[in-house]
Amino acid sequence: MNEDFDTLIIGAGMSGLAAGIRLAYFGQRVLLVERHSIIGGLNSFYRLRGRDHDVGLHAVTNYVPKGTKGKPLTKLLRQLRISWDELDLCPQLVSSVAFPGRRLRFSNDFSLFHEEVAREFPHQADDFAKLVTLIRDHDELDLSQKATSARAVIGDVLSDPTLIDMLFCPLCYYGSALEHDMDWNQFVIMFKSIFFEGFARPRRGVRHIIKLLSQRFKKNGGILRTKCGVERLDVKDGRVASVTLDNGDVVNAERILSSAGLAETLRLCGKEPTGDDEQPGQISFMESISVLDRLPSDLGHDETITFFCSSDRFNYRVPEGLSDPTSGVICSPNNYAYDEPLDEGIMRVTTQARFDRWDAMEEPGYVAAKHACYEASLDEVVKFVPDFRPNVVDVDIFTPRTIKKFTGHDNGAVYGAPHKRLDGRTHLENLFLCGTDQGFLGIVGAVLSGISMANLHLLKS
């Protein structure tokens, strides 16, 4: 079977869905293909033992109150013609960055975090104010800028290594594909999205956002096919001439937009990644979802998200072993400002993990290792939150191998390649990138990535 489309989009994650909606609004015939049966990519959902669980989603970053103008969330809503109320977002209560003997609490009001830094690090208060000004003045939407080390920039402003580490910890966990560092532009994006703006969550979780986007795409004439992967991109004269699907069907499209990742997309063209700027990422995580017999607030835990580090220094890298439990993210989906509480208490823990070690394991050693790493992570977690281990009634654990299986990303790399293609261009004139390897991260960032690339490259004609 041979079909013709204006644009074919690879991957029905947030960026692919958003790009599809934008193109459909302008009358393009768009095909969105997804290899798996569930859409959402890195921010999806699943059902296990009668319970619904989110994948990836701790929070929607970039939250701003209804009526706020000129922010990423409101730009997204305007471009996709979605009302603020349709997202059904509930703001966080309070979160923190917790290190041994130090804790910086923050909320969706930046003044709290600013005051906390001044209280905990009074000798750095003036310099932190200078850093805040530097971040406010930076234009993170300039697609022509060059990569710059965030640690180098911040090291010129701040001198306290613990404060620097406490700033990097949440931003790395929510957006860095680099070991020990971030690109300065990525640092600014994540700082603004987490501290200047904030966290929120739909009460029904990520499935609410996915359902909203997919319905809007299909309502406007977009075609979505699941269980439909791309076998190869057929290249001729510097262009993608046609697309061969896993089932053998051939699709013709004027333009191709891929959210599969740069290295993964190059392989679809029959081209192996060569230069350093084409290499896939290595940073991956393991995550546990513990279901409790009571709400976390009943145990005295009121924080929405706790970014923790139990070592003197924060070490963000691919660990030597299966995982590194000494830093991570503790998230309670219960601790948002809902009208009604969730049915059960939930604690989610995310730590750094190494893909190749997990990938080499066979059952039943794999299952045993998951539970051993889970127990080791909780030994560290309970240094910062009330001990909820006696209250766990069910648990699910996934590893970098799981991430690779359901996203197709090399090495289970959650944030893609270290080197981003901010303009989304590839070596082929009609093939473009969106999503993690383009460079806008988080749910709002991913959606804006799809919108930006659609506007920049796919709507010109």
UniProtKB/TrEMBL annotation:
Record carries keyword DNA-binding: no
Keywords, comma-separated and alphabetical: Oxidoreductase
UniProt-listed Pfam families: Amino_oxidase
GO molecular-function terms, A-Z: oxidoreductase activity
Domain of life assignment: Bacteria
SUPFAM superfamilies: FAD/NAD(P)-binding domain (SSF51905)
UniProt key word Oxidoreductase: yes
All residue ranges annotated as the Amine oxidase domain in the record: 14-455
Similarity comment: family membership: Belongs to the carotenoid/retinoid oxidoreductase family.
Protein name: Amine oxidase domain-containing protein
Species whose genome carries this gene: Kolteria novifilia
